[in-house]
Each structure stands twice: as C-alpha cells, then as structure tokens.
Amino acid sequence: MGKGNPFSFRRSSSSSSSSTTRRRRTTKKVGESSLLLSNQSANTPSPSSPANVGDVREPAGPGKPMVVAVAKPKKKAGGARLWMRFDRSGESELFECDKSTIIKRAGIPARDLRILGPIFSNSSNILAREKAMVVNLEYIKAIVTAEEVLLLDPLRQEVLPFVDQLRHQLSRKNHFNTSGTQGSHQLALRDTESNLPASGRWLPVTETADGLQAELPFEFQVLEIALEVVCTYLDSSVADLERDAYPVLDELAKNVSTKNLEQVRSLKSNLTRLLARVQKVRDELEHLLDDDEDMTQLYLTRKWLQNQQSETLLGGVGSNSHTNSAHHLRRLSSVKSVSMLTSINMSDNDVEDLEMLLEAYFMQLDGTRNKILSVREYIDDTEDYVNIQLDNQRNELIQLQLTLTIASFAVAFETLVAGWFGMNIPCRLYDIEGIFQQFVAGITAVSFLLFLLVLGYARWKKLLGS
What we know:
The chain has helices at 9-43, 99-106, 110-115, 160-180, 182-194, 218-254, 258-290, 292-297, 300-315, 319-330, 335-342, 352-421, 435-460, and strands at 55-58, 67-70, 81-87, 92-97, 125-128, 133-137, 140-144, 148-152. It has 466 residues and is an alpha+beta fold.
C-alpha cells in the first residue's frame, strides 16, 4: 500500500497494538483490585461483629496500601407512618409501621388505606368491612375493629382532643364496668349458660341482672366519640364565623369601601369551605341512614360474636362449649355485650342503636348547616342592600349628568348666536347705540328659558327625580 493511503495496514496494526496494551493494563488493574478486595475480606471481621460498624481501617504494611471499608447504613423502611393503638380498656401505645402491616393486622384492602392518605384528606367516609370499620372524618383517620382502634397521626394538634377524649371515655367505662358490675356480670353469665340448650341455639334474655341500660358496642363508642369531636369542632368553627361575620357585614352596609368588600370576600370564601366540610360529613351520615345493609355491616362486635359462637358450636356441645362460651363472654366489657350475645339469632338485622346514634349527630350537623346557611343568607341580603345603594348612587349620577347636558345645550344655543354675530358681516345692529347689553341679556334669557323647557320635559317623562 502507498504512504498516503488512509487505509494502511500499518496504521491499523499500531492502533490495535495500543488498544491491546490498554486492555492489558486494565486487566492488570482489575486483578490488583480483586486481589486487594480479597485481602480485605480475609482480614476484615464479619458484618455481624461490632467492629464492622463505622469505618474499618487496616494498618498499612511495607508495600501494602491502606484499605478503608465504610459500612453502609441500613435504609429505613419506606412508607412507615405513626399510629396509635387503643384497646377496650383505654390503654394506648405508639408505633410505626408500613401499609402492609396495617392491612394484615386490620384485614382491610389496600384501597381503603389509601382513603386515609393525604389525597383524600378533605373527604369524609365511614366504610364497613368484614373485620374493621374505616373512619375518615375531617382530621380523624382511624381503623376500628371489635377489639382495638388504630389511629393515624395521633400527635397532630387537631387530633389530640380526640385522643384525650377517647382515652378518658374508654378508661372511665372500663373502670365502671369492672368495679360496679362484677356481681351482675356473673349472674348474667349463669343466666346465659342456663339459656343454652343442648341444640346449641341461643335463647333471648329479657333483661340483664340489675336492669342496666344497654350499652353500645365498642366500635360504636369510638364512632360516637369521633362524631362528637368533629361536630363540636364544626360548631365552634361556625360560632367563630358568626362572631366575625355580622360586624363586618354591618360595617359594609354603612360604608361601602374596598377594605370592607375585601373582608366580606374573605368571609364568604371561609363560609363556602366550611359549608362544604359540614355537607360532606352530613351526606355520609345520610348515606348510612338510607342503607340498612351498610349499617348492619358496621356491627363488628356482633359479627365477632357470631364467629366465636360458630367456633364454640363446632368445638363441641357440653361442658367444653359452656366453658368456651363463658371464656369469650368474659372478654366483653359490658352487660350489653352479654345480652347481645344471647340474642344474636334474633337481631342480625336490628340497626336501631346505630340508627339512633347517627340520627342524633345528623340532626346536629343539620343544625350546624342551617347556621351556615343563615349566615350566607345574611351575606346575600347585605350584598343586595349594597347593590341597591350603588344603583341609587348610579341613578343620581345619571340624573346629574342629564341635568348638566341640558344646561350645556342651553349654553351652546347662546354660544351659537354669539358666533353668528362674531362674523365680519355688515349688519345695521352694529350702528345702534347701547344694543350690545340688550342683545346679550335677551339671548341669555332665551337660553335660560330653553333650559327650563327641556328640564320640564325630562321631569314630565320621569327621566329626572322630583
């Protein structure tokens, strides 16, 4: 090949030899690195030993470089959130866990747990599942089962009143039930066991031992506390809104200014947001009241007792059945649970207790909504009054403008006559002595008379007020 040929075999061989040299150097470096790592792994303790925590330095010897191994910190599990657990006795504990743990523990699908997330923070939902009830009311996000409550983000400032009230109510009821109803509980157990025939079917008990009033199940106690806290919070918000609204609206009615209009605009925005929040909770309660099947599914204690009864009956009839039944009965926290256990087969579709509970808070929310609507009506009335005032002022300005227009027309007539005589046209009136004053007075009187005629015509046509 020639010297000037770009495809010379000599150039290709030189480039291939250089690339071969680079590959050899790279292979040498990789071999040295692997040898260094093997020496380090041989001289470094196992990861389970305490010496592996932090930096591990191997002393350098003659001809041997120093090796530094940095232990990687363990990554924190993603998606872990703070929860608080309450049991029937009011005992609580804080813990952090991820979604999968909560799903397995409460037995709910993943989509229900998403409702408690920040995306649905402004929604209100009460969902019934097989073993749990998902409650999402304003800032209260909880999963309620027949035995415990799992509360999300319990350290938020808005959730702390609910935590305190829940702890207080559960502890007080547990203390009352354990101290004041021990004798009646034992008597109710004996009566319950005497009403269990050999066929294994539960017979109804007319009344508890001491005639105590029936108590709500555990899940409805939690739901009642949540509704009470939410309704109280909404009522206080409406009271604050009313206290701020009426003075601002009265001031706007007296003086229509930019500052007062801006305050009313902000007030109306707050009212709209508050009305939407109240309406969401009210609609959720109304939806539950309209569907008896959903209310039946909310009876978690009843379903839990049915499962316990089925296990007891399958386990055998006789002394073992009575013993297991008494054991499960002792886990209940009230005499109501005993009476409900004895009448399971008769009251599977009985939702009277829950219906009365929901109706009470539905009426309270309806009253709160009516207060907000009354404030909004007062705002609308004030706006109508202000618009009437502005229309009146606008009409007065139009009348003034019309009056000035009539006066301008009369002055324009006098100016027209003056312009005619201002031309350099010969006229015999110029030669008359003292005619100027008389002529000016005459055209001024004619212009004024023209003004009065047009003004009277406008009043006759009711274009101007009296």
